[in-house]
Specification:
three-stranded antiparallel beta sheet; 102 residues; 2 domains; alpha+beta
């Protein structure tokens, strides 16, 4: 079985995995000092310190949560404006759910 050559780091070190994928960064500035992974003559990944990676992951998670919250809020406001949101008492909610009254 023919295997493709392992990607090289700028420092000349080889990676132990053949496929490295991270679609978060599209282009590196010329002044960037991070090691990069080349495959087929193209830069396919950037090697960053764990602390930077963790900060990036946390920022992406916070962004995702904020986007979900914003979408839910927009949906809620649209339903509220359309008159589709109704409030019922605690007792009525328990009755509708088939729970005993307190």
């Amino acid at each position: 079985m023919h295997r493709p050559p392992e990607p090289l780091l700028r420092s000349g070190a080889r990676l132990s995995h053949y496929v490295v994928s991270m679609a978060l960064m599209s282009e590196l500035p010329a002044s960037d000092s991070h090691d990069v992974i080349h495959h087929g003559g193209e830069v396919v990944a950037v090697v960053v310190p764990i602390a930077e990676y963790q900060q990036l992951r946390q920022a992406l998670e916070e962004q995702r949560v904020n986007e979900e919250f914003d979408a839910a809020r927009v949906g809620y406001l649209a339903r509220q404006e359309a008159g589709a949101i109704r409030y019922v008492s605690h007792e009525e909610a328990r009755r509708r759910l088939g729970l005993p009254a307190r």
